[in-house]
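Form 7-S
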Amino acid sequence: MPDSKRIVINVSADLLDEIDKLSHIENKNRSTIVREAIDLYLEERKKSLMIEQMKKGYQEMAAINLCIAGEDKQN
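Output:
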């Protein structure tokens, strides 16, 4: 990774144990495990934000559609 940067994070001993176990099982180093975890988190976060935006848009459209439907009933 030519453009990588080093960061320092603090994690609980239990979390570090889990990372080390996974590291051993998957034959990957800690950095790879943490990097993959961050990638997954960010991907899920993007999906969640998109879903929230879609919900908001659908709710706004529902209100508009109800208004339009109400106008049609009056004519």
